[in-house]
Amino acid sequence: MQKPNFPGRVAFQFLAVICFFTLQACSQLSPDSPAMEKLKTSLKIPSSLDWSDPDPCQWTKVDCQENRVTRIQIPSKNIDGTLPPELKNLTQLTIFEVMNNRINGPIPSLAGLTQLQEANFHNNNFSSFPSDFFTGLTSLTSIHLDNNPFEPWEIPKSLKEATYLKTLSANNANIKGKFPDFFDPETFPSLTELHLASNNLEGELPAEFSGSMIQSLWVNGQSLNGTIEVIQNMSSLTEVWLHENKFSGPLPDFSMLTQLRNLSLRDNHFTGIVPLSLVNLKSLYIVNLTNNELQGPTPRFAADVVVDMNVGSNRFCLDDPGVACDDRVNILLSIVESVGYPVSFADEWKGNDPCDNWIGIVCDRGDIVSVLFRKRGLTGTISTKFSMLTSLRTLDLADNNLTGIIPTELATLPKLARLDVSNNRIYGKVPYFRHDVNVITAGNREIGKDRVPTLRGRSPGGDSASNPSGNGEKKTNKGTVLGCTIGVVGGLSLLVLVIFLCARKRKHTSKIQSPTTLRVHRHHSGEQGVKITVLGPNVTGQSETFSNVSSGPTDVHMVESGGMAISIQVLKNVTNNFSEENILGKGGFGTVYKGELHDGTKIAVKRMESGALSMKGLAEFKAEIAVFTKVRHRHLVANLGYCLDGNERLLVYEYMPQGTLSRHLFNWKDEGLKPLDWTRRLAIALDVARGVEYLHGLAQQSFIHRDLKPSNILLGDDMLAKVADFGLVRLAPLDGKHSVETRLAGTFGYMAPEYAVTGRVTTKVDVFSFGVILMELISGRKALDETQPEESLHLVTWFRRTYVNKDTFRKVIDKTIQLDEEKLASIRTVSELACHCGAREPNRRPDMSHAVNVLSSLVELWKPAQPDSDDIYGIDLELTLPQALKKWQALENSNLNESSSFLASTDTTQTSIPGFPFGFAESFRSADAR
Ligand SMILES: *[C@@H]1O[C@H](CO)[C@@H](O)[C@H](O)[C@H]1NC(C)=O
Ligand SMILES: *[C@@H]1O[C@H](CO)[C@@H](O)[C@H](O)[C@H]1NC(C)=O
Ligand SMILES: *[C@@H]1O[C@H](CO)[C@@H](O)[C@H](O)[C@H]1NC(C)=O
Ligand SMILES: *[C@@H]1O[C@H](CO)[C@@H](O)[C@H](O)[C@H]1NC(C)=O
Ligand SMILES: *[C@@H]1O[C@H](CO)[C@@H](O)[C@H](O)[C@H]1NC(C)=O
Ligand SMILES: *[C@@H]1O[C@H](CO)[C@@H](O)[C@H](O)[C@H]1NC(C)=O
C-alpha cells in the first residue's frame, strides 16, 4: 500500500507536470483594501516599503490567501504612526508583526480576529492596551507586548479566551494589579512561556499555577510577595526568574521540577534552609540566591552549577559550602520551621552560635535555657522539636497567633519550669507535665477541650505551619459539638456512599463477566488520567492478577497518558488464536485480524510482524500510543487499546463494518456494491474534513496525518466516515509556520509536491491529499490510474485541465452520479475546493477549516446535520476546538466508571465485510529521530 508500486517514471512525471501547473492569479481587488489603506496612512508607511499597488496583496511584507490579507510583518522599519481601529476588519489575519518601530497611540482592539495566531507589538511607543483585546482570539498562540510605555493596565479578563496561548510576553509593559485567577492549566493547556518581568504586579503567585505547563516564568522586578510554594507543583519549569521581588517564606520542595535549569531567587526575603531537593537537582545549571535571608548551612551545589550566592548576603551559619551547622542551630531552625521561618528571626540569628546574642535565646554556659518568643507575631503551630532542647527551663510563646495543640513531647523536657502559651489559639487537652512545671494557658478559648478532629482537618500537633481554618476564637462550646457531630455524621454517610458505589461498580462489572469475558479495570493514576487494564479470562474475583500473561501490571503503566493495555491472552481468545480465517487483511508491517468479543462486539486487531521492531521501534510504539489516547474524534477511527508482550505489539481498533472508501468508490462493481450517490460522497468528504481538521487543530498539539487516501478512510454501517491509520501521524508545530522534516512516507498520487521533493511536512500536506480525495469522489477515478492513457494518468493534472475548461467540465464527473441542476452546482463548488486544496504552492491551499465550512454549507442543503448525542466522544461542531476538547475531557472524566460499556459499545450486528485500519506500523519505518 504505502510502497510506491508505480514505476519511478510515473512519479517523476507527476511531479514534473504538477510543478509546471499554476493556478491563474485572480485580479480582483482584495476586500481588505479599505482597511489596509487606513493602515497605510495611519502608520505613515515609508516609501522604502513598496505599498503603492492598489491591491494590498501586492504590497511587500503583506501576504494574502484567497485574496484576503493573512500576514502583515513590518518589524524594524522606523515606522512612527499609529494603528487604526480598522485593523479589526482584517478577519483573516493570522500574523501581525510591528515590533521594533516607534509606533504611537493605543493598540486597537483585535477582538474577533479568530484566525490571529501571532501578534508582536514589542519595542514601540504604544500608549495603551485595550481590555477587550483578547476577546475571541481563540487561535492566538503568541503575543509580545514588551517595552511599551502603556498607561497602567491590568491583565484583562478577555485573556481567558486565548486558550491556545503558548507565549505571553509583556516585560516592562506597566502592568499593575494582581495575577488573575485563571492562569490554570485547564484554561491555558499550552502556555509554556509567561514573561511578565519588570512590571508593577503585586500580591502572590496564583495558586492556579499548580500543575501548569509553564516552562519559562519571568516575574522578576516588581512587588510580588508571599511564599512561592506553588512552584513545587509546576513540574515543567525550566527557567524561573523571581528575583527583585518581596517573596518570603522558605523555599519549596523542588523534587518535581526535574527540568529546572535556571533559577533566579536573588533579592527577595526567602528564609529557611535551602532544601536538598534543590541542591541535588540534576538539571540545575544556574542558581542565584544572593540577598535573601536563607539560613542553615551554605548549600554546596554540584561543580558544574553556576551559583550566584555572595558570601554574607544571606544568613547561612557558616561560609563554607556544605559544612553542617552547630546542633543547636539545627534544632532552632527545625523549631521555627513550624512557624514558617519568620524573617525577624532570620534577620537577627547570625553566625553559628545561638548563644551569641540570638534574639529570643538565653544560654547558660553554652546550653539554651530559655526560649522567649513572646509577642513575635508567630503563626503556625508549636513545634515538637522543642523537646530536643534538653536544657530548656523557660519556654515563653505567649501573645502570638499559634494554633494546634501543646505537643506531649514538651512534657518530656527534664528541666522545664515554666511554659507560657497564653493568648494564642491553642486548643486540645493540656498534656501532663510534672507537678512543678508552671503551665500558663490563659487566653486560649478552646484549651482543655477534647477536640475530635473533623474529617477535613489535619491531625493537630503536626509541625506544618498551616492553620486549620474556621477554628476561630468565636466558636462556642455548642458550635464545636455540633461541628463534631456533623463531622461524624458526614463521615458515616461518606462511608455509606463509598460502600454503595463499590457495590454498584461491582455489580456493573459483574454484568459483563463470564469465564470468557473481558474484565476491565480502570486505575486512577495521578492526574494524568486513567489506565485501563483488561484482564484475561480465567481470573476469578476482583483481584488484579494476570493469568497466562507475561506482562505484569508494571507494563501497564509504561505508556503514559492513560493508555489502554489489553493482555495478549484476551486478544488470542477473541481472534481464535490469530487464525487464518480471522484475517481481514495484511499491510505494512502487520496483519489485521477480526476479533469478536463474547457479546458479539467486533474489533480489529493489528498484529505487528514480530522481529520487525527494534528497541527504537518500541519507544516509538509507546509514543504513538500516548498520542492515540489523546486523539479522539467522531471522524477518527478509535483506538481501543494496545498490547505489549515480549515481541508482540498489537493494536486494537474499533471495527468498521463497511470497509474502506476505496471499496465503495473504485471496487464497488467487484464487491457487488451500489455506487455512492453524490449526497453520500459529499457527506463522506465532510466527515473526513472534520476528522482532519480536528487532527490539525487539537488544543495542545497539532497532528499531521501524512497518508490520507481512500483506503485509509473507513465507513461504518451508517456510512459515517472515519479517518484511520495514524501510523504516519506527526506532531506539527501549531503555528504552521515551521515544517517538520521527515523521511518520505505516504503514497504517490496523494503526496503534496513540496513534500515529495523536500520531505518537509506541514498540515498543508494533508490539505493536498484531501484535495486529491475530493477529485476522486467527484470523478470516481484513482489518484494514479495506470489503466488510463499517459496524459490522464495523474488525476490532479487531468482534473484541473478538464475542470477549468467550461466545455469539458462535465467530463470530470463520475458517470454513475445522477445529475440535476442542484447537484451540478454542488459538484462545481466541490471541484473548485478540490483544485484549491490541490494547489501546487502550499500557501495557496486553504486550511481544513475552510474545507469544512464549504462542505458543510453544501451538506446542509440536503440533510441538516443530526447531532449524535450517543457518541460519547463526539465533538459538538458548534463548539470551538478548545471548548470541544474541554467538553470531551469532561465527558471522559465522567465516564470513568463506564469503561466496560465503552469497549462493548460498538454495535455490530450486520455484515462481516472486512474493514480495518492499515499501516500503523509504517511509523516505525518512516519515523526518524528528527
Ligand atoms: C470595517 O468594518 C465595519 C463593520 O464591519 C464597516 O462598517 C467599515 O466600513 C469597515 N471599514 C473598513 C475601512 O473596511
Ligand atoms: C512616544 O509617545 C509620546 C506621546 O505618547 C511622545 O511624546 C514621545 O515623543 C514618543 N516618543 C518617541 C520616541 O516617539
Ligand atoms: C502582599 O502585598 C499586598 C499588597 O500588595 C498586601 O496586602 C499583603 O498583605 C502582602 N502579603 C504578604 C504576605 O506580605
Ligand atoms: C500541589 O498539588 C497537590 C495535588 O494536586 C495539591 O494537593 C497541593 O495543594 C498543591 N500544592 C500547591 C502549593 O499548590
Ligand atoms: C544569575 O547568576 C549568574 C551567575 O552569577 C549570572 O550570570 C546571571 O546573570 C544571574 N541571572 C540573573 C537572572 O540574575
Ligand atoms: C491573629 O490572627 C488573626 C486572624 O488571622 C488576626 O486578626 C490577629 O490580628 C492576629 N493576632 C496577632 C497577635 O497577630
TrEMBL record:
Domain of life, source organism: Eukaryota
InterPro entries: Auxin_Ser/Thr_Kinase (IPR052422), Kinase-like_dom_sf (IPR011009), Leu-rich_rpt (IPR001611), Leu-rich_rpt_typical-subtyp (IPR003591), LRR_dom_sf (IPR032675), LRR_N_plant-typ (IPR013210), Prot_kinase_dom (IPR000719), Protein_kinase_ATP_BS (IPR017441)
Residues annotated as domain Protein kinase: 578-859
CDD domains (alphabetical): STKc_IRAK
Region named Disordered: 448-477
Residue stretches spanning the membrane: 480-503
Membrane topology: Single-pass membrane protein
PROSITE patterns given in the database record: LRR, PROKAR_LIPOPROTEIN, PROTEIN_KINASE_ATP, PROTEIN_KINASE_DOM, PROTEIN_KINASE_ST
Signal peptide: 1-27
Cellular compartment(s): Membrane
Gene3D superfamilies for the chain: Phosphorylase Kinase, domain 1 (3.30.200.20), Ribonuclease Inhibitor (3.80.10.10), Transferase(Phosphotransferase) domain 1 (1.10.510.10)
Keywords attached to this entry: ATP-binding, Glycoprotein, Kinase, Leucine-rich repeat, Membrane, Nucleotide-binding, Receptor, Repeat, Serine/threonine-protein kinase, Signal, Transferase, Transmembrane, Transmembrane helix
SUPFAM superfamilies registered for this protein in UniProt: L domain-like (SSF52058), Protein kinase-like (PK-like) (SSF56112)
Residues binding ATP, per UniProt: K606
Family, per entry: Belongs to the protein kinase superfamily. Ser/Thr protein kinase family.
Protein's name according to its UniProt entry: Protein kinase domain-containing protein
